[in-house]
Amino acid sequence: MASALREEIKQQKPFKSLEQEAYLSIERTAAVLTHAFAEVLKPHDITPTQYNVLRILRGAGRSGLCRNEVRDRLVAQVPDVTRLLDRLEESGLIERERSAADRRLVTTRITAKGSALLRSLDGPITRHEKRLGHMTRAQLASLIELLALARGGA
């Protein structure tokens, strides 16, 4: 009997190994969920990574964070956080302030416009997260644990 993933991607041959099937299953699941997430954000003209930055900065409050702190907290790594922050600043969603005491230190904060955008997205994002609502609490806890285990071996 073909696996659910083989049927979904219309693959005729069996996978080379369980590890390959597990890896591709993680990739496929991430792609499906990420695409749906991007569709939620599309009308607001921001990407999932930009949303992640805004969420991080909302959590940081008025004290804000420096570029490297934002980079370290991102769910998905990006090659150029400075350009990412530049685009958000150009959109008026964040602001950056250079320290008078140490000119090398630049603090990034979410703006009122960025906070308003996040508030408008809170409902749609919660509905998106419910895409996993068909799973029991025990299944979700097990999934979280297994994914952490997979990341630990990477």
Describe the protein.
- The chain has helices at 4-8, 18-41, 48-60, 67-73, 81-90, 112-129, 137-152; strands at 65-66, 94-98, 106-110.
- The protein is built from seven helices and three strands; from the N terminus they run H-H-H-E-H-H-E-E-H-H.
- It is elongated and about 60 Å long.
- Helix 2 packs across helix 6.
- It is mainly alpha-helical and 154 residues long.
- The chain has a domain at 17-122: Arc Repressor Mutant, subunit A (Orthogonal Bundle), CATH 1.10.10.10.
- Strands 1-3-2 form a three-stranded antiparallel β-sheet.
- The mean pLDDT is 93.
Question: What secondary-structure arrangement, pairings included, does this model have?
Answer:
Elements: H1 4-8, H2 18-41, H3 48-60, E1 65-66, H4 67-73, H5 81-90, E2 94-98, E3 106-110, H6 112-129, H7 137-152
Helix pairs in contact: 2-6
Silhouette: elongated
- The sequence of SSEs as H and E is HHHEHHEEHH
Distance between the termini: 30 Å
Query: How many beta-strand elements?
Result: 3
Strand order of the largest sheet: 1-3-2
Which CATH class of the domain at 17-122? Answer: Mainly Alpha
The residue ranges in which pLDDT falls below 50 over 5 or more consecutive positions are none
**The CATH superfamily title of the domain at 17-122:** Winged helix-like DNA-binding domain superfamily/Winged helix DNA-binding domain
The overall pLDDT, averaged over residues, is 93
> Roughly how much helix do the residues carry, as a percent range?
55-70%
Indicate the proportion of strand residues.
Answer: 5-15%
Helix-and-strand structural type:
mainly alpha
